[in-house]
Design goal:
Blueprint (H helix, E strand, L loop, with lengths): L35 E3 L5 E6 L13 E6 L9 E6 L9 H14 L5 E5 L4 H13 L4 H11 L8 H8 L11
Parallel strand pairs: 2-5, 3-4, 3-5
Antiparallel strand pairs: 1-2
Helix pairs in contact: 1-2, 2-3, 2-4
Length: 175
C-alpha cells in the first residue's frame, strides 16, 4: 500500500511541453541561450516570458519561480509561485526577498528560471534584485539587467524604485 502524496503548498507554472527526464544532475544554463543572465559572481539565471513556448531542445530548469497575479498550472520541475500582479510589485515583499535569496543561492549549482507573462517587467525586476544580492549596487542594478538581459526590463517607475530600495541587509556579494 502506498502512502498518499501530501498536497503541494505551492502551485507551479504553465509549461507547453510534456515532462521529460532531466538525465541526472543539472549543469548550468548555456550562457548564450536566450534569456540567460550572467551575474557578476558567474551565476546564471534564465528569465523568460510564459506567453512564449519553451524551446523543446532547451534543457528544463530544475527550479522555477513564477511571478504572477494568479496561480499557475503545474510543471514537471520544482517550482514556486510568488504572487506578483502585472505591472505591480510583489504582494508580500518579505516573502519576495526570501524567495529571491533562495533563487540566488540555488543558481550557483542549478538551472533556475524566473518568469512572468512577458518576461520583462516582473522578471526584469526580480533579476535586478538578484543583481543586488550578487553585489551590484542597487542604484546600478536596473541598468545592469537592461544591458545584459533585456533593454526594456523593469517597466514601471515603482519597479525601478523597488530595486533601488531592495534590502541590502544580508547581501551575499560575489561568492
Amino acid at each position: 500500500m502506498t502512502e498518499p502524496t501530501p498536497p503541494r503548498d505551492e502551485p507551479t507554472p504553465p509549461c507547453d511541453e510534456p515532462a521529460r527526464p532531466h538525465g541526472g544532475p543539472a549543469g548550468p544554463w548555456d550562457e548564450r541561450a536566450p534569456g540567460v543572465l550572467r551575474l557578476p559572481s558567474g551565476r546564471l539565471v534564465r528569465g523568460r516570458g510564459l506567453r512564449r513556448p519553451l524551446d523543446p531542445a532547451a534543457p528544463l530548469p530544475t527550479y522555477g519561480v513564477y511571478l504572477l497575479g494568479r496561480r499557475p498550472p503545474d510543471v514537471p520541475w520544482e517550482a514556486h509561485w510568488l504572487r506578483w500582479p502585472d505591472f505591480r510589485l510583489p504582494a508580500d515583499r518579505e516573502a519576495a526577498r526570501a524567495v529571491l535569496t533562495e533563487v540566488w543561492e540555488r543558481a550557483a549549482t542549478e538551472r533556475v528560471e524566473l518568469a512572468c507573462g512577458g518576461g520583462r517587467g516582473r522578471t526584469g525586476t526580480a533579476l535586478a534584485c538578484l543583481a543586488v544580492l550578487d553585489g551590484v549596487p542597487a542604484a546600478r542594478a536596473v541598468a545592469y539587467v537592461r544591458e545584459h538581459y533585456d533593454r526594456r526590463a523593469v517597466e514601471t517607475p515603482w519597479q525601478r524604485r523597488y530595486v533601488r530600495t531592495f534590502p541590502a541587509a544580508g547581501r551575499r556579494g560575489h561568492g
